[in-house]
Design brief:
heterodimer; A: about 210 residues; Four Helix Bundle (Hemerythrin (Met), subunit A); 6 helices; B: about 525 residues; mainly alpha; Cytochrome C Oxidase, Chain A
Chain lengths: ~210, ~525
């Protein structure tokens, strides 16, 4: 490993120091995540209102979701958060091979999550448990399609965030292989890490709210 | 300071050097051009719909076309013009200069936000061509679910424009926190910076809610998720709650930076330190906070609970306090000042006059019983035009004249500016004061036709729109003319104290030859004599 050379990082021209650059990036990421929080926030409000109006319908609807798959995915995402943290840690202590392995593992977990989600979606589509225009299942409750409208919107947007995260992970991998991350510079790792934890956190709220009702 | 031949405008040449620029000043200019085009387009729609309203009968447009016209006027003016207007153009140009920084914290993100804006604008333009949307700029459900016009492309356009706004907000917040010059403490910041800070907070916190709301509307139309559709068990009033949770704070996105410009103008043209610096700074934050708690005053007649309405009414009154703090402090700043009547100061006076009318009528509309009578009448139309156009647009133009020499290194024609101001003020009041009267007499907004008794007032309002247009055309003429034939501007033509005037006009690419060190407040005119 010692044969691999770290690429030095040059501070952008408009910053006075590395510390200023890093802290700016971190503050920017946090502010961006606040924006994300409000973005999902409105959906959680909509969820709350419709669950309050149709409690029985929500209880019926959640029986159509597989809590086992949801729980499995929760574990997968928590594991991916752990490997993400370890990737940052590896860069901080200049261990490039573990850095690359941890990034690959994170990417793998993200892929597994989406794979399970795909199986779940296929099953819903097969049974016609879909939003309004496409809903064709036979349920007891009148407005069952509302739940699946909310379910697909929330998990769909969350899945989109996972997909974006995977793109970012690939970008990090390329840069890590080039040797751009080391104890002197790991800002992009830290930023994607923050984003990744946020996306995990959203799922940690989505799982009980959608799968564990009643 | 010695003048350097190179500046940000001529440092590099060619289209590519503009479209790939990371310089906040160039990005500000690019925004300014787009925003001016949007203002022209929105103004054109306004003239067209005012023309139709000169008579209760059909003149040029059918009822459907009229619905599309007022929708496009509103959507273009709100999403393409007034939300980005001051922060993205003047703010982008000024913020790093006023902070003594070389650029914003994230120059690439800054350029990205401009491209996102253009991309969103293309969606809006497409929507205009492909069966222009007719729902009103508020896109209220359930009509927006059923309307056969191009609702999806317009809402997607607004959704994308929202992200441009969010990215600018994130960039500005970080820039203000992290990029200040040595010695530039929070209470030495120009009040424009405080205003931009408060604006950015709202942009980041409110815009995502609009984004998700518009996305849900798109999903409603494509998949029928049912959340906003009563036929599917949803609630159209929920749409109104979500929409105004953004769109009420958004009017403060529009007015707060205008108030920042006011503070700059009044100190420079009265040659006097601002009265009550901290109160003005904190009142910006107070407005930002209260702005999130008043959205329900748009729903007084939408079937909201009586208790909610009462609380929203009370909270709405609270907005008047920080707004009045600002107005009183500006007036107090003028007291015993050495007042120079130049075009920017005329717009300052225009703002004070018109914003007070707009503000007072806002408090009137916040009163429950009165709102039931005035809701959805021309009174509301007149109120928000007094605040948005009489307030924000006046301040924007005032600021544009004030910083024009800094941006382009040329002086505009002061006499023509005075004449244009007179036309704008006269025309504006002709158009909109009339509408207060129309509204209080019961003329509903967005109507294609009306009772004969309203015709004289409608006609008067339409004639006013022509006077207003003459003012703006004259302004466009002498501003463009100044670029070609204007006198060269010195680095500090107004004798102002803030940092952007301490570098040459136009500034060099990295703004300052050496990073300034700040030792006093932004409006410390006493310091001038000592140095």
């Amino acid at each position: 490993m010692s044969m691999l050379v770290n690429k030095p990082h040059h501070v952008a021209h408009h910053f006075a120091s590395e510390a200023q650059e890093f802290e700016s990036a971190r503050l920017g990421m946090w502010v961006f995540l606040v924006q994300e929080l409000l973005f999902f926030g409105a959906l959680f409000v909509a969820y709350g209102i419709f669950r309050w109006w149709h409690p029985q319908m929500f209880i019926e609807a959640h029986h159509y979701l597989s809590w086992k798959m949801g729980a499995f995915n929760t574990v997968v995402l928590i594991a991916s958060s752990f490997t993400m943290v370890m990737a940052i840690r590896s860069a901080q202590v200049n261990e490039r091979k573990p850095l690359i392995s941890y990034l690959l593992l994170t990417l793998l977990f993200a892929g597994v999550f989406l794979g399970v989600k795909y199986i779940e979606y296929m099953e819903k589509i097969h049974h016609g448990l879909l939003p309004g225009h496409f809903f064709s299942a036979q349920g007891v409750s009148e407005y069952l399609h509302l739940f699946f409208g909310i379910y697909f919107t929330m998990t769909g947007l969350h899945g989109l965030h996972i997909l974006v995260g995977m793109g970012l992970l690939v970008w990090l991998l390329v840069r890590a292989i080039r040797g751009e991350f080391h104890s002197e510079f790991y800002t992009p790792l830290e930023m994607v890490g923050l984003y990744w934890h946020f996306v995990d956190l959203v799922w940690i709220f989505l799982f009980p709210l959608l799968y564990l009702i009643g | 300071m010695s003048q350097v031949a190179l500046n940000y405008l001529n440092a590099t040449k060619g289209l590519k050097s503009w479209f790939c620029t990371l310089d906040h000043k160039r990005i500000g200019i690019m925004y300014l051009i787009c925003i001016a085009v949007a203002f022209g387009l929105g103004g054109f729609f306004a003239l067209a719909l005012r023309l139709e309203l000169i008579s209760p009968k059909e003149i040029l447009f059918t009822a459907k076309q009229y619905n599309q016209l007022f929708t496009l006027h509103g959507a273009v003016m709100v999403f393409l013009f007034i939300v980005p207007s001051i922060p993205a153009s003047l703010g982008n140009f000024l913020l790093p200069l006023q902070l003594g920084a070389k650029d914003v914290a994230f120059p690439r993100l800054n350029l990205t936000s401009w491209y996102v804006y253009v991309f969103g604008a293309l969606f809006c333009v497409y929507s205009m061509v492909a069966g222009a949307v007719d729902t009103g700029w508020t896109f209220y459900t359930p009509y927006s679910i059923d309307s056969a016009t191009s609702v999806i492309s317009m809402t997607l356009g607004a959704f994308i424009l929202g992200f441009s706004s969010i990215l600018t907000g994130v960039n500005f917040i970080v820039t203000i926190h992290k990029m200040r010059a040595p010695g530039l403490t929070w209470f030495r910041l120009p009040l424009m910076v405080w205003a931009l800070y408060a604006t950015s907070i709202i942009q980041v916190l409110a815009t995502p809610v609009l984004a998700i709301t518009l996305l849900l509307l798109v999903l409603e139309r494509t998949m029928g998720i049912g959340i906003f559709n009563p036929a599917l068990g949803g609630d159209p009033v929920l749409f109104q709650h979500f929409f105004w949770f953004y769109s009420h704070p958004a009017v403060y996105i529009m007015i707060l930076p205008a108030m920042g410009i006011m503070s700059e103008l009044v100190t420079t043209f009265c040659r006097k330190d601002i009265f009550g610096y901290k109160m003005i700074a904190f009142s910006s934050l107070a407005i930002a906070i209260i702005s999130f708690l008043v959205w329900g005053h748009h729903l007084f007649v939408s079937g909201q609970s009586d208790y909610a309405a009462m609380i929203f009414s009370l909270l709405t009154y609270l907005v008047a306090i920080p707004s009045a703090v600002k107005v009183f402090n500006w007036v107090a700043t003028m007291y015993r000042g050495s007042i120079q009547i130049k075009a920017p100061f005329l717009y300052f006076l225009g703002f004070m006059f018109l914003f007070c009318i707009g503000g007072f009528t806002g408090v009137m509309l916040g009163a429950l019983s009165l709102d039931v009578h005035l809701h959805d009448t021309y009174f509301v139309v007149a109120h928000f035009h007094y605040v948005m156009m009489g307030g924000t647009v006046m301040a924007f133009i005032g600021g544009l004249h004030y910083w024009w020499p800094k941006m382009f290194g040329r002086m505009y024609n002061e006499t023509l500016a005075l004449i244009a101001w007179a036309f704008v003020m006269l025309g504006f009041n002709m158009v909109f004061f009339t509408q207060f009267i129309l509204g209080s007499k019961g003329m509903p907004r967005r109507y294609y036709s009306y009772l004969d008794q309203f015709q004289p007032l409608h006609a008067f309002s339409t004639v006013g729109s022509w006077v207003l247009a003459v003012g703006f055309i004259l302004m466009a003429f002498y501003l463009i003319d100044s670029l070609l034939n204007g006198k060269k501007a010195p680095s500090n033509p107004w004798g102002a104290m803030t940092l952007e005037w301490q570098t040459q006009s136009p500034p060099i690419t990295e703004n300052f030859l050496e990073t300034p060190v700040v030792t006093h407040g932004p409006y410390d005119f006493g310091m001038e004599k000592q140095s």
